[in-house]
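Researcher: We plan to redesign the surface later, but first we want a full-length starting point. C-alpha cells attached.
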C-alpha cells in the first residue's frame, strides 16, 4: 500500500471511530433532557459552523476566499448533505427505528461507488462489489435487523432512509472532487454554515405547521445539556467530519465510504463497554464481515499487483 493510501485509510478509519461516539451522546440528551432531535441537529451544526468559520477568520482567513462559484457549490452541498441529511436522518429513525435507519444510511457507500463511476469514471471491481455486500450484511447483523421486534419498515420509511444515504453521498462526492483544491476546513465551514441555516428554516417551518409550547429553536434549557452538546459538536462530530474530509485527499470517496462502515461495530462495542449490553453471536459475525469488507478491496488489489509482477518477470 502506498504511503498516501495508508494515510487515507487511517484517517477514514479514525473518523469512523470518532463518529461512533456521537449517537450515544445525542441519545443521552434526547432521553435525559427530552430535547427534540431537530433542535440538537440544528445547534450542533451551528456550533460547528461557528468554530470552523471563527477559527479560519482568526488564523487562516485566506482559506475562506475561494470564489463565488465554489461558495455556491458548497452552499448547495451544505443544504443537501448537512441540513437535509440530518433532518432526513431524524425522520428515518422515527419511521424505521434506529437499527433499520442505520442499515439504510450505510447503503451510501454503494451510491458513492456508482456516483464515482458515473462522474469520475472510476472502475468498480468485483472485489469492491463483494465488499459492499459484506459491509451491508455485516451492518444489518450488528444492529440486529434480523430481530422481528426491530425489523419494521414501510415504503415511506424505506424511501426516507435511502434519501438519507443519497444526501450523504453528495458530501462524499463533492468532497472528493474539491479535495485537491479546497481545504477540508473550508469545506466544513461553508457546508456547516449553510446546513445549519437549512435546519433553522426547517425548525421555523415545524414551529409554524405544528405549534406547541416548546419551540424547536429554543428547546434546550439546562446549562448541562448545552455543555454536553458543545462537547459532542466540537469533539466527535467535528473531529469525524474533519478526519473523513481530509481522508478524501488520499483515497477515493468509494474507499473512504466503505471504511466508514466501521462506525457500526465501534458503536456496538461502545454500548457493550459503557451501557453493559451484550453482543449476540450474529452481531459478532456482523463485525467480522465488516472488517473483512474493509480490507478486501485492498487485499484483492495487492494480489492482482503481485500476479501482474510475477507474469511480467516470467
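Model: Full-length starting sequence:
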Amino acid at each position: 500500500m502506498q504511503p498516501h493510501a495508508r494515510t487515507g485509510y487511517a484517517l477514514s478509519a479514525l473518523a469512523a471511530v470518532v463518529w461512533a461516539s456521537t449517537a450515544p451522546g445525542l441519545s443521552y440528551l434526547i432521553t435525559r433532557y427530552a430535547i427534540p432531535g431537530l433542535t440538537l441537529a440544528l445547534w450542533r451544526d451551528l456550533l460547528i459552523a461557528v468554530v470552523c468559520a471563527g477559527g479560519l477568520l482568526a488564523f487562516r482567513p485566506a482559506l475562506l476566499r475561494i470564489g463565488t462559484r465554489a461558495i455556491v457549490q458548497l452552499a448547495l452541498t451544505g443544504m443537501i448533505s448537512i441540513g437535509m441529511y440530518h433532518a432526513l436522518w431524524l425522520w428515518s429513525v422515527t419511521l424505521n427505528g434506529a437499527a433499520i435507519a442505520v442499515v439504510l444510511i450505510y447503503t451510501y457507500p454503494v451510491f458513492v461507488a456508482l456516483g464515482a463511476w458515473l462522474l469520475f469514471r472510476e472502475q468498480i471491481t468485483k472485489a469492491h462489489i463483494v465488499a459492499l455486500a459484506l459491509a451491508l450484511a455485516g451492518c444489518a447483523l450488528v444492529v440486529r435487523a434480523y430481530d422481528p421486534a426491530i425489523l419494521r419498515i414501510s415504503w415511506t420509511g424505506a424511501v426516507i432512509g435511502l434519501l438519507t444515504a443519497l444526501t450523504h453521498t453528495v458530501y462524499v462526492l463533492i468532497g472528493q472532487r474539491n479535495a485537491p483544491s479546497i481545504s477540508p476546513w473550508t469545506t466544513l465551514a461553508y457546508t456547516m454554515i449553510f446546513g445549519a441555516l437549512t435546519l433553522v428554516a426547517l425548525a421555523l417551518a415545524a414551529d409554524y405547521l405544528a405549534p406547541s409550547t416548546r419551540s424547536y429553536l429554543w428547546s434546550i434549557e439546562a446549562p448541562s445539556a448545552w455543555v454536553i452538546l458543545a462537547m459532542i459538536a466540537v469533539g466527535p462530530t467535528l473531529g469525524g467530519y474533519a478526519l473523513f474530509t481530509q481522508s478524501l485527499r488520499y483515497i477515493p470517496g468509494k474507499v473512504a465510504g466503505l471504511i466508514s462502515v466501521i462506525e457500526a461495530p465501534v458503536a456496538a462495542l461502545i454500548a457493550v463497554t459503557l451501557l453493559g449490553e451484550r453482543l449476540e453471536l450474529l452481531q459478532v459475525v456482523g463485525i467480522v464481515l465488516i472488517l473483512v469488507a474493509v480490507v478486501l478491496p485492498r487485499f484483492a488489489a495487492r494480489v492482482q499487483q503481485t500476479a501482474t509482477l510475477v507474469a511480467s518477470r516470467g
